[in-house]
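To whoever is covering the structure queue this week,

Two jobs came back overnight. Logging them here so there's a record in the thread.

Job A:
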Amino acid sequence: MRPNNDRRMRMSAMSFDETSRILDDAGGALHYHEAGSGEVLLLLHGSGPGVTGWANFGRNLPFFAERFRTIILDLPGYGKSAPVDGLPVPAAVDAVRRFLDGMGIEKAHILGNSYGGIVGGQFAAAYPDRVRRFVTIGGIGVWILSTFPAEGLTRLVDFVEQPSRERLVQWLESMVFDKSILTEELMEMRWKSATDPVTMETSKKMYTRQALEAIAAFNRGPDAAQGFAYLPKIKAPTLIAWGRDDRVNPLDGALVPMRLIPNAELHVFPNCGHWAMIERKAEFENVVMAFLTRD
């Protein structure tokens, strides 16, 4: 049942502050936003300078909160969540486990964008009994035709190694198909967040020329298959969402996950870059809602 008009208006008026929460545990503070009721839908953001859960999914929260208890989590070192030691992806997977345990949530739908898709996919593989359905947006790719790194990752490293507002804008432009969505307000918000020392330190753990060269060498080496060996272990019904014009993770990256995840389907959004949830907001929300509520 869809909400009445009064409830719809309340949902559309959700703000950062009124939905903001903190979960403190032995691993450090985990910041999140929460709204709605019902089955839990956990949203995991991407990576890069200026990224937070709210920046990725704040505009989608009212829609999904109509049907689900919707939670947007800031992964360690992003937004208001405390940084942690160790490699970013394993640390983030553990943070998801900590968060669900701390909130008393036994099972959830998980939706991840880019880095959040990798984290969500590895969590779904490691804890199959805790994931109802899994949605990833351009995050778990295995590139078989495109060169690595793609333009978006190269521009991201350019910014991380020599931060400037100009380089931030160049990176943001590589994330989208339609540059008109990059408003001055959005770019200013990203600039302030990206230059935060904690956020920058998190970015430096992942995005350096040396790190990309190591990934490229691994992908060409004899153990390359280990990088996607977790995919067949994802047992949850899976929706792979991708922008046709993604210049960060090109579309051919979807082919191997689509084949290896046992119960996966692929939806490609035209005229769309790396941010399907922002750039094709209405279509994305409707496709995901239909998938999550399918009998």
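Job B:
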Amino acid sequence: MTIGKLAKKVGVGVETIRYYHRQNLLEIPSTTSGFRLYSEEHARRLQFIKRAQTAGFTLQEISRLLQLDATRDHAKAQELAIARLHALDEQIESLQSARSALQKLAHDCEHNRGQPCPIIAAFVPGE
């Protein structure tokens, strides 16, 4: 299939596929009659990348997972997954903290009418 058909089948943009080529996440197929023709294996690899991104893995981590798949090193893959879980937990904690702070600012804004806006004041440097 052509790059356009592959992109449509997997639900990514053509430029995304080209980017994955440059990042060595996806092999560039050989040229046939002047066109690069992609296989079902390319589609499976792209679907793997998309699913891993949905799970929170970075492209660098996905590259490592793909290498581990070739060696069948389940222990290293599990280590990578556990490290990603810890990073996601930290992000969630940070987002919850930001949410709480913003929720308090919104509450303060609602109850301090006629005074300087606490939301804007919170983001002004030096205040």
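Note for Job B: The mean pLDDT is 90.

Please reply-all if you pick these up so we don't duplicate work.
Q.
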